[in-house]
Amino acid sequence: MSILHGRDGPASVQPPLSQAVGYVIVVVIGLIIALVMMVITNILKKTTGEDNKKTEMFMTANRTVRTGLTASAVISSWLWSTALLGSSYVGYSYGVAGPFWFAAGCSPMIVFFALLGISCKRKIPEAHTSLEVVRIRYGRTAHIVFIILCLINNIFACANMLLGAAAVITAMSGMHIIAATFLLPLGTTIYTFVGGIKATFLTDYFHTAIILIIACYFTAKAFSDDQVGSVGHLYELVKAAAERNPVSGNYAGTYLTMTSKSGILFGILHTLGNFGLVIMDTSYFIKAFSASPAAVVPGYTIGGIAYFAIPWGLGTVMSSVALGLENQPNFPTFPRRMTSSEVSNGLVLPYAAMTIAGKGGAAASLLITFMACTSTLSAQVIAVSSILSFDVYREYFKKSATDKDLIRSSHFGVIFFAAFSAGFSTMLHYVGIDLGWTLYMLGVVTCPGIFPMIFTILWRQQSKAAAIISPVLGLATGLAVWLGTASHFGGEVSVASTGEVLPCTYGTVASCFSPIIYSVVITLIKPQHYDWNDFKKEKLALEKLESDLTTAHHHEASDAIRENSLEDGPASSSKFDAQELKRWGRIAAFWSIATFLGHWVLWPLPMYGSHYVFGKKFFIAWVVVGIIWLWGTMLIAIVYPLVDGGIQQITEIYRGLTGQKDLAVHDSHVKDSGDVTTSPSSPSAASVSDEPKDKKESN
């Protein structure tokens, strides 16, 4: 058996790929994707009437995205470079507990967001961002507080992605890390600038397909490699790795147990931090507003449960490969172990890929890192641009902003935030901050607004003062606890001490739960009772979009339809029956509770408490189930959107391009979409005859 040197050995590993490969993937492929999206956007405008120069289309895709594409977009929204790199990182550090807690820290809040999404659809269907909801209920002071909290969330989320992705690109290709940081957002900026949220949905689909295909390839390639051979032999390799290097804080020092003190602490802070990332990320609300009412709950539920397999299945396999083969001559760092810096920079996955697949594995890991980073970065960019256009420009600078004004401000927001996030990430890199540090401390700054925002949507009694004060006090409390415990346990406040698991856990818990106490106490002192119907008094969609199905309900002629129509397929949320929305709300609540209990309580905690150490048969079952789940996720993300309307729209586009569109079919489709075709005096009816191409349902 080969002997490994300690972590203090030489840390340089020669990049397996040339800089040219790095620039081709980051720049050339990014620009090609952007160019393709520009062409697709133009084709959709010509053939289906999806005009991205209209605000409703640019920001909310006319609120008609179906379940399949919604589920795929939800999976993509969490396919961060952090998820791919971080799950392998914690698996290498804590064993089988790491990837599981990473996955369990993501799926429950994705499913829970279905409840918030459908509640917003029911109470304020015309909203574009969550911040509009805050402003209408509490006024401008609360609005400004939450704008700041949401922007902090987006800034740190982007930094987290860029730091990890840039480190991997540099390690794999030798490309300068600052060049990678600034070039990664380039293609994203271009296609988001042109296509808006629909371009984000479509590129999400494309990126997710490539990432999941490569992830599934890695899980197959690992066991076709002679060094591994089978899941049973992988078990023996991981067991031997624990004998060489016992894990501090794990029961019996083994990697093969869920009884991991550091693992469960990571699970707590990761779960709470991700709740903050979801609730305080306006991109999630935008995607919920963009989905049709019938697609919100099934889309988020299916996407959330399917996503679980990605960090769990892929993270378990690749971290086990790295642990088991670290003492082999073809492992990149041999004859030493990976340094703490290499692990923290997210290099476990690419090094494992290089070990089982050589330069091809390096190129594949580089490609999925790029895809994951740009895919989620596009959602962050559109989120910030929506804040700057709707919540800043429209509210504080030009109340009468037109489509043209809002699109222009959105374009400015896209460019500004892409440049700012790259600059901010560069600053963090130069002060010694990496993926591991941001992964641990993220919850401290993202969590303070969680419960005040949830209460805004679900609790009538929360007062204006509570909404304004509680998140500010929560942020102050979290920062104080984080820095105080870092000083106590580390002896000083430094990058190293503030990046440890324990201070970050304490700080995240304080940031998350203290606002509950502050909000309840302040509300009891000065209670208020909000009437949900007040949300509907404010018209947020632009009146000018008379030819748009999603805004046709502004006209008096469609008021009756708003009250009586019940659409089974995608339709304007205002035309969707209130009782049906309530039913979806109950379904969302059930699945939120079930997912949390299943993924966080009933499955892992008994294993933690029993000090169970995996036997060979159990480990084989654990890995096989994870791989099957991962392959199922690939099918859901790739095939489901095509079955659920994708093929129909592709056919529609083909007919439009070849001039074969059947007028009768078109008219039938318009009628089915719920427009007011029977009232000649209705402005909506007039718009049907004037602009038939605008009357298409987005899939």
UniProtKB/TrEMBL annotation:
Keywords: Membrane, Transmembrane, Transmembrane helix, Transport. It is a multi-pass membrane protein. Residues 690-699 have a biased composition (Basic and acidic residues). Pfam families: SSF. The keyword Membrane applies. GO terms for cellular component: plasma membrane. One of its GO terms (molecular function) is urea transmembrane transporter activity. It is found in: Membrane. Residues 670-699 are annotated as: Disordered. Residues 675-689 have a biased composition (Low complexity). The chain crosses the membrane at residues 20-44, 64-80, 100-120, 141-169, 175-194, 201-220, 264-286, 293-314, 364-390, 411-431, 437-458, 465-485, 505-525, 584-603, 619-643. Signal peptide: none annotated. Belongs to the sodium:solute symporter (SSF) (TC 2.A.21) family. This is Sodium/solute symporter. It comes from Penicillium angulare. The lineage of its organism: Eukaryota, Fungi, Dikarya, Ascomycota, Pezizomycotina.
